[in-house]
Specification:
- The longest helix has 19 residues, at 208-226.
- The protein has 430 residues and is an alpha/beta fold.
- α2 (34-47) packs across α3 (65-74) and α5 (108-117) crosses α6 (127-140).
- The chain is built from twelve helices and 21 strands.
- The protein is globular.
- The site of ligand LLP has 21 residues, from α10 and α11.
Length: 430
């Protein structure tokens, strides 16, 4: 369910025709729907009734300040993986006590920033990190709130690039080692051992791996309780998938019910780190057709969005629905084409072998389910200014991020000596 729907043949974002937004702000343009964000957050929260649950939205999925501020207003916590993400959360009015800091390589300065800001939990991912965190806490004269992120060795059956809970993955601590580290951590006066965490992967479309992972983490918690180490919270991570094409992921209600069941009898609090399921289909990417090009037997629709704007198709072979913003006339014939961007890479495609009613130059296309890992993974490759972002709420649209300009592209760069003055150009006479 999302609030990007056609009305009278024109795609709307809530009550605004998206073509109006493209006119006002140019393309490529990310458009997000507040009503969709609210709905997803509330449905997930509702599915966890009966649990003392904190939703810690995974900032990496979409870190726009206006999006973060909206979740903060709903009462959300945040899952961060860098000092930069913490900075954003604080600027957006997020409550530091509801922040969990995950990640396999946190630098000392990032740990210090987090402790200074008073984050709720630091999810430690290695023995070495535990030692460094203790040293940073001692220096700052605080006790660091700690959970260990364990690696439950569960196959999430997802794309290998986004599977994180298998034994050979760089993430998390094997259960046996974690047990030993808990015994070490509780004796450390600079550490405050609070909980246990796991995250097994992203875009999961079945419940089984979640249930297995929670089962293994619970077994560890029970084991520790037997040894007098009582954990106050269990963090089940994120990972619930969305529908891009024909996937049928569990609904938030089914997911919530499975988590509730897997946690039956658990008396502590629960943390969740959902990203994609909250923002995925709450965002679209609008792009304009620059050129339609035929090459041999192939038809290329060259658009003004590229892999630097949305890297998922190039990087993971991901499939995103693409549709015209203005519905084509009934009965118009679809052709098979590649939708590609202007970047100088053969992997710069948004869709391959896609059936589309062939658009004309200047037409607007909408790339769906681009709210998660869309803008946040964008870059300036080919010196392309990054897209603008708009957050729609009913019939209002906030320019949540300005389009980058050419001066933005070189901000912070330096020349060893002043750039030569351009010489007047003289045409040679024949
Ligand atoms: N917690 C941790 C520790 C994570 O590493 C992640 C995602 C999440 C939570 C949120 O997972 P989600 O609920 O969004 O699945 N760029 C990839 C996805 C990478 C996910 C990385 N970790 C993509 O575009 O599919």
């Amino acid at each position: 369910m999302n609030h990007f729907q056609p009305r009278r043949g024109q795609l709307h974002a809530e009550r605004i025709p998206v073509a109006t937004l493209a006119e006002a702000h140019g393309t490529p343009l990310y458009v997000y729907s507040t009503a969709t964000l609210t709905r997803h957050w509330k449905v997930l929260k509702g599915s966890l009734r009966g649990l003392d649950a904190t939703i810690c939205y995974a900032v990496k999925a979409n870190s726009n300040l206006a999006v973060l501020a909206h979740f903060a207003r709903l009462g959300s916590g945040f899952d961060i993986v860098s000092g930069g993400e913490l900075y954003r959360v604080l600027k957006a009015g997020g409550h530091p006590a509801k922040v969990v800091f995950s990640g396999v390589g946190k630098r000392d300065d990032e740990l210090a920033f987090a402790l200074d800001a008073g984050v709720g939990t630091i999810n430690v991912e290695s023995a070495g990190e535990l030692v460094r965190l203790s040293a940073v806490a001692r220096r700052l004269k605080v006790r660091a709130p700690v959970a260990l992120r364990v690696n439950p060795d569960v196959d999430p059956r997802t794309h290998p690039y986004i599977a994180t809970g298998l034994r050979e993955s760089k993430f998390g601590i094997p259960v046996a080692e974690a047990r030993r580290l808990y015994h070490q951590a509780v004796k450390d006066p600079h550490l405050d051992v609070r909980g246990v965490a796991c995250h097994i992967g992203s875009q999961l479309t079945t419940l089984r791996p979640f249930v297995d992972a929670v089962g293994r983490v619970r077994a560890l918690a029970a084991d520790l309780a037997g040894a007098g180490i009582r954990l106050r919270h269990l963090d089940v991570g994120g990972g619930l998938g969305v529908t891009y094409r024909d996937e049928q992921p569990p609904s938030p209600d089914q997911y919530g019910a499975a988590i509730r069941k897997a946690l039956a009898g658990w008396e502590g609090a629960v943390h969740l780190e959902p990203g994609r399921v909250l923002v995925g289909n709450a965002g679209v990417l609008l792009t304009r057709v620059i050129q339609v090009k035929r090459s041999g037997k192939k038809t290329f629709v060259v658009v003004d969005a590229a892999m630097n704007d949305l890297v998922r198709p190039a990087f993971y072979g991901a499939w995103h629905a693409i549709e015209p913003v203005v519905a084509p006339p009934a009965g118009a014939r679809a052709v098979t084409c590649d939708v590609v961007g202007p970047v100088c890479e053969s992997s710069d495609f948004l869709a391959r072998g896609r059936k589309l009613v062939l658009p004309a130059e200047g037409d607007l296309l909408c790339i769906r389910t681009a709210g998660a890992y869309g803008f946040t993974m964008s870059s300036n490759y080919n010196s392309r200014p990054r897209a603008a972002e708009v957050l729609v709420d009913g019939d209002r649209a906030l320019l949540a991020r300005q389009r980058e300009t050419y001066p933005d592209l070189i901000r912070g760069e330096a020349l060893a000596r002043p750039a030569p003055k351009p010489r007047p150009f003289r045409r040679r006479r024949g």
